[in-house]
Structure formats: C-alpha cells, structure tokens
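Internal ticket - ligand job 319, iron/sulfur cluster:
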Amino acid sequence: MSEKFKVTIDNIVIEVDPGTTILNAARMIGGDIVPPAMCYYTKLQGSGGKCRTCLVKVSQGSEKDPRPMPKLVASCRTTVMDGMVVQNITSPEVIEARKGVVEILLINHPLDCPVCDQAGECHLQDLSFEHGAEQTRYEFKRRTFERIDIGDKIQLHMNRCILCYRCVFTADQITNERVHGVLNRGDASEISTYITKAVDNDFSGNMIDVCPVGALTDKTFRFKNRVWFTKPVDAHCECDKCSGKVTLWYKGEDVIRVTGRKDQYGEVQDFICNTCRFDKKKTSDWTIEKPTEIDPRSVISANHYEMEHMLPVIDKKIM
Ligand code: SF4
Ligand code: FES
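stdout (structure tokens):
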C-alpha cells in the first residue's frame, strides 16, 4: 500500500496521498471546513496563490516537526505533511484575515451586483456575503475601464476583474496559442488583449466559465435574464471537438445559454467547444438528461427550482 499522510483539518482527521494540498484534503472531507478559493482551479495547471481567500492556519507543521507555521498559508499552494494540524473555520485569526482579503478584493470591484450579469452565480458575491464586512471603508475612486469585446462572443469588463489569472491560464492551456495575459503590475494590472484583439479559437468560451466574477461574460446571454429565473438542465450531444456534456439554461421553452457543467466548487467538469456553447441553442440539438442539481443555498434555487417541477417540461422536450 502506498504511504499516506494523516492530516487534521478543523478537528477532522483524513489520510491523503503525499503531495495533496491542504485545500484538496479539505475538499475530500467536504462541508463547511472547505476554504473558499477564488483563483485555484483544479483543471488549470499553475492556478492558485493569487487571491489569498483560501488562507488557513497550520497549528502543527507535522508529526516530526510539530512547530506551527509562523504565518497563515494559502491552502491551495501548501501541501500536507504527515501529522499536520490545520485550522480553517475553527480559527478566529483565519476568519478575521479572510474578512480583510474580501475587503481588499472589493477595493476596486464595483458594487454593481444589481446590474451585473454574474449576479446570483458570482463567487465574489457569495464570498462577500459569507465573509465580508457590512460596509466599505474605502473612500477613493475605483479603477474604471471601457468594456472591451474579446472576439464577437465575449466581453471583458475590467472594472470587475479580481486578477485571479484563471482566464489567462485557460487561454494558455486550453487554446492553441496564448492570446491574452496580464499587463503591468499592482494597481495598474489589467487583462490584456494585447497580442490579438480577437480570441477566435474553438475553446475560448471557457474563459467565461472560469471567471469567478462578472468580468468575462457571454455576449449571447448578457442581460437576457437573471440567472435565478432560468431553468438549468443537463444535456449532451455528439461532438467531435469536446465531450458535448453541457448545462442548458432555459427561459420558458428557449435555450438562452449553454455552459460547461460545474461541480460543487463551481469548477467546470469538462471544457466545452464554442460550437456547443454558442451555436447550439435549439432543444433539438441536444439529448436532455435531467434537471441540473442546484445547491439549495444558491439563489438559482430561489425561483423554487425543483426537480419535480421540471419533469413535465423535460418530458415534453424529449417527445
Ligand atoms: S477576467 Fe475573470 S478570470 Fe480573468 S483574471 Fe479577471 S477575474 Fe480572473
Ligand atoms: S485560491 Fe488559494 S490563493 Fe486563491
């Protein structure tokens, strides 16, 4: 049997493979003890270490060296040691630090949730709700940018970008050539379309799905509906470019958006191609499977979205 490391997170013990990060060990346990992650993305190599929302306290480094780590560490970038003891929600210091991180993330982020297309499925909105302060102390003018079209299907609204780099890693790893990146540093940093103005390869739409905020949005869906008034349904098709496994977002009888299927941490399970995402907006393009399972805490379920309610609709579409 291969060697396992024992790690304790918020008093729960789990054994994991060497090389596992604290964040992934926590995800194996699941529940409230899982740190939030705004920049780490399982499918994107090199992601993580940018946003600091996943900070945790290591109160015992390992069995061999039980000294605590001197500072809070990014759980997405720190691998477990045998006998490590970690505190997340059981540490007031972590909770306080996370509140500070949210405040920093919101320094330049506009508080425009009522008009933002991402409202209801924005990770920063959820993070602020769960960990943020009631009011901002920030008195200065926020950074503002003009909206930029990245190709004809994607729009970048840099005002909302939290510089998580997920879209950059996506462009780098999923697409054939690097088409955008982050220019400048600090307050002047911005996602750039410097190399070419258009992202016109087959998988560029995945940048929309990985963006945790409303900075990169689908122009074919923008302002068509609030997400909590839509009905998401799992569907698939035969596709020679991608897995063809998607979520269709219905408004009445119409498919108004197609996205990749996301897991419980909001990460896409399979990247999908632009043909599936943008060009297949008819029910007849798809084989419908079942209503998408929505976390009851999500506002998407606020429209009384329940499996049973969708079944007659699905039956009708299959017929
Ligand atoms: S545009 Fe979105 S995905 Fe890209 S760096 Fe900004 S917040 Fe992250
Ligand atoms: S998720 Fe760990 S630093 Fe962003």
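Auto-summary: The longest strand covers residues 245-251. The mean pLDDT is 88.
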